[in-house]
Give the backbone structure.
Amino acid sequence: LLQRLDISPGSRFTIKTLVTYTLILIGILWVSGLIGISWTKIQWLVAALSVGIGFGLQEIIANFICGLIILFERPIRIGDVVTIGDTDGVVTRIQIRATTIRNWDRQELLVPNKEFITGRLLNWSLSDRVSRIKFPIGIAYGSDVDLAMKLVEEAAKENSNVLDEPAPYVSFEEFGDNSLLLYLRCFIEYNDNRIQTITGLHKAIDEKFRDADISISFPQRDIHLDTSTPLEINLRKDT
């Protein structure tokens, strides 16, 4: 039935999970009534058990409560691209105790729900699926900066994944130790193809720079010898 409604996969999953929890609770209460178990008979036992279980299972209970908060407040949804800790990936499942995130290597990470509520969470697609790509390009000293900036901008505009609005922007921001640092900022609509887009941009920039004879810099060191005094050289022969 939910498949026919015009709602997002995350909303369908939330409704399905809440309905499942509700039916389980109703089923437990109904079975208890059939076998003659009333709340007045077991309330003291439940109270005593809840204290003991609370100490032993407090983390599990905390994760369960946080799972309900996630389903109601929806800071993350199925299909969202998130960063938590040092892991980037797509939310594939929200369960009672933990949420499953699949990273770009298709490895699945189970994250306790408590981490999403009490920790720092970056949701790339919470209100807008558009995200920014930013990376530096270091060119050798003496290169034509204006030409390099123009070529980088052309590479971004020619990439089909890069949005026309906001437009790509190239800036010259730093005199580095070994290079003149340019930065490319551009926007993509879907974070799923972020790695492919960055790879395509790198290849296009490298090709354009080689055609224009612009060198991408690399770390180097200059060594200067003091020749104001004679150098002392000792030759030793090992026997």
About this structure: The CA atoms of residues 116 and 187 lie 26 Å apart.
